Amino acid sequence: MENAALNTLAADVRGLDVLRRAARDNSPEALKAAAKQFEAMFLQVVIKSMREASHGDELFGGQESKMYQDMLDQQWAHVMTEGGGTGLARVLERQLSANANSADTSVKPELKPLSEAGLFQGLPRMPAAASSAALRQSLQPGEAAAAADLEAALAELAPVRTRDVPEHARAFVERVWPAALSASRATGIPAQFLVAQAALETGWGRAELTSADGTPSHNLFNIKAGSSWQGQTVTVSASEFIDGRWTKQTDAFRSYGSYEESFADYARLLQNQPRYARVLGAQDAGSFARGLQQAGYATDPAYADKLERIIKGPLLRAALSG
């Protein structure tokens, strides 16, 4: 693949499939382009978040205006990655190269924290002990799904070996696997499908819903409380895709005493709601994911694609085998 062709993909999310195919051939150009693309995607999210945090001009609102604004954000992100960029792409490239078959794995790449790279210089470092708690507070349900999907996409670009599985992913699978097996027996759905959905909803356990005092809800499937729920709840401001746009709204979500209770309640939800009838017993990843989306489980229009990506991805397979 020509370098010029790879560079055109730097800010094009649809180019992921092309980059994955090139990355499987251990192409250094593909890994570099992939790292640059994810840097552009990250910057686009940052730009969008900054805009949403401020009061915009609603006079020229509407879908067409939003479309052009998104295109402008994408272009700005692409421009910001030119030259040295923020430094994030270089870190990702070294990490991806370390997992490639053609890389010299005897040399451990020196990865610097983002606080030392370009745009992030001068920002205070987060203590390691506080990082997980901070992440749970910063990621909302919809954002946790995006984080889990990004992690799965990165794993596809550089296949994960069992010994390289991130500790948080391995620990998450080990923690929920027994409960997933019980829910699998009740629903006929493979346990790994249920674990993948829990990973998508919570960012592999790092963005689990918590109460104001930090108490975990153990709600791995982000099930809302509803009028019939008689148990404990946590109130969270979550992102929902409504009328063609992402909006923030505050909702009450169910809170459980354990992950076993969460999986058991999710199994009952699938069994008791007629709209999920076609999901029960699903043995195909695509059918399971699409069935949930068509039944209205989530408002994210890309929910089925994200879930199927994780189910079929190397990160889940490696975590399960580890």
What does this structure look like?
With 322 residues, this protein is mostly helical. The chain has two domains: 3-125, no CATH class; 164-321, Lysozyme (Orthogonal Bundle), CATH 1.10.530. The protein has helices at residues 3-7, 16-24, 28-53, 63-81, 88-99, 128-138, 141-157, 167-187, 191-202, 259-272, 285-294, 303-312, 314-321; strands at residues 233-242, 245-254. A two-stranded antiparallel ribbon has the order 1-2. The two termini are 35 Å apart. Residues 1-11, 55-60, 101-105 and 107-138 have low confidence and may be disordered.
**Strand count:** 2
* CATH architecture level-2 label of the largest domain: Orthogonal Bundle
- Side-by-side strand order of the widest sheet: 1-2
Estimate what percentage of residues fall within beta strands: 5-15%
What structural category characterises the helix and strand content? mainly alpha
- Taking the alpha carbons of the first and last residues, their distance comes to 35 Å
**Total domains:** 2
In terms of quaternary structure, the protein is single chain
Low-confidence stretches: 1-11, 55-60, 101-105, 107-138
Summarize the amount of helix as a percent range: 40-55%
